[in-house]
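Model the whole thing, not chain by chain.
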Amino acid sequence: MDLKIRGKTALVTGSTAGIGLAVATLLAKEGARTVINGRTMARVEAAIDQIRKTTPGASLVGMAADVGKASDIERLVKGLPDVDILVNNAGIFEPKPFGEISDADWFRFFEVNVMSGVRLSRAYLPAMIQRNWGRVVFISSESALNIPAEMIHYGLTKTAQLALSRGLAETTAGTGVTVNAVLPGPTLSEGASGFLNSMAQAQKMDAAAVEANFFKTIRPSSLLKRFATTDEVAAMVVYVCSALASATNGAALRVDGGVVRSIA
Ligand SMILES: NC(=O)c1ccc[n+]([C@@H]2O[C@H](COP(=O)([O-])OP(=O)(O)OC[C@H]3O[C@@H](n4cnc5c(N)ncnc54)[C@H](OP(=O)(O)O)[C@@H]3O)[C@@H](O)[C@H]2O)c1
């Protein structure tokens, strides 16, 4: 299937690993000029090398920036004044009991997970609307709906992304621009496998047993009963980024393995 995004410029924040890397790889395969972002140039270059191995003709640009910092975003936007597709993917998560989440933690989570998307949308959305074509996608989470007791600060930022995404979509009415949120469930990204391995070490179990236990006790409503792969999530995200998804706007789309029980 041709997703009709050849030659479009796509920025995927946090695309040196995990879901972001899978999304960037698929966008590049579809012929988009894809901008790879992470906090260091070393990780950005390693990701570019990795994508080139599977997609030799890929059009790739590397831009290191910490999207949790206003000054880095300003520099990124100066170097890349226009994008057609913006995927607000960069995000952090860390389990912590509510009482131990400091003010600094709350603000850090808000800066990285929410303000990055606010600032980048403010920079790029007006020109998309003017050109009458554009795609903004927020990578939220099932945790936006099932707020995890073990990381309420994370859940809050993921719910905030849904409000932001829907609100911005309202500003695109009657144009060829769409703004949507995608809600992955547990996904075997670099971050999640680190989390799984440390649980395995702590519980003196192998990773497969920890995964089975995770779906028995922590996410029992999962219908998939395993972690999704980053490619499974990327397929949904890249479809939403495509020209084919022109009638999908203001939506919160789940690729969560059925973890969220509601059907609305
Ligand atoms: N994995 C899951 O189970 C899951 C489930 C639902 C939703 N999500 C969401 O999916 C998104 C990606 O998660 P993931 O699990 O794929 O992550 P991951 O494997 O931990 O990778 C995180 C990526 O974000 C980048 N990053 C982190 N902080 C950054 C910052 N301040 N500025 C720029 N880049 C930054 C990292 O790059 P560098 O380290 O190179 O800077 C890396 O490329 C997040 O928004 C997360 O909330 C994940």
